[in-house]
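Researcher: I've been going back and forth with a colleague about how High-affinity zinc uptake system protein ZnuA might be arranged in three dimensions. Neither of us has a model we trust, so I'd like an independent prediction. The organism is Nitrosococcus watsoni, in case that matters for your notes. Sequence below.
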Amino acid sequence: MKFGNGIARSYLASLLAAWIGCWSPYAYTADPLPVFVSILPQKYFVERIGGQRVQVSVMVRQGQSPETYEPTPRQMAKLAQAKLYFRIGIPFENIWLERMIAANPKMEVVDCRQGISLLPVMQNHSILEAGDHHGMADPHIWTSPPLVKIMAAHIRNALIAVKPVFSSQFEKNYQAFIQDLNQLDQYIRQTLAGITHRHFMVFHPAWSYFARTYGLEEIPIEQAGKEPGAKSLAALIERGRQEGFRAIFVQKQSSRSNAELVARAIGAKVIVLDPLAEDYGRNLRHVASVLAKVLR
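Model: Here is an independent structure prediction for High-affinity zinc uptake system protein ZnuA. You can compare it with whatever you and your colleague have in mind.
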């Protein structure tokens, strides 16, 4: 995968936009820049780079599901004041983004997926053909630290374009964040180095990019956002028994009834892992530690 050229072009474009942005009312003001993101991990990313120069609002709050979420009237009203929206590709964006842009035509939408090789949505053991259609692509790119580095470059470039007077501060924060992501990536690789099993079962397939990055395979119970049928459940139970799965991973926002059914049938535990936790580094260290223990 070649990301360098795209990021370089994006950075050069941001410098040009920064020159043009000098005429923006946001360019020299010390007031925090109002920006919106879709999920809590993005809030952490933007604040790491923007620091006190940004005021970040999150659409999908703690405990809510990106698959079923709908913005509140209060959020839509606040969105009218936003300068930037950092898009990540989660389901509610596909339904609401046009309406959000209509509420604030001057708001710039930054697609943080640019330069990333997207995975198709998974359905049990088979793969649905996604092609180039983002609506069918797996949106959980933030679960992979190397991919967050690409997202971070987009965030830096967008902030510099709108507030060029603080470009050196954004660049410094960006470099510090990249260093932390490199350390996080190294920690995860070292933590998973001793595992003997490479497959793990989940209810909702939120960890595909994490799995791809670290040489694992995620086996989802959910079928393209829907509960599995009896035939699929039977096949999952059989595979779970054959491979000796010791745990099934669920998240707070999803139903766990079928996960518990499969777990009882194969003698496994149900363990909660949260892909939407705001404290990104701490959360992924926890995820790596739990997986290392279960997969040994």
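Researcher: What would you highlight for our discussion?
Model: I'd start with this: Residues 13-23, 124-135 have pLDDT under 50 and may be disordered. After that, consider the following. The radius of gyration is 20 Å.
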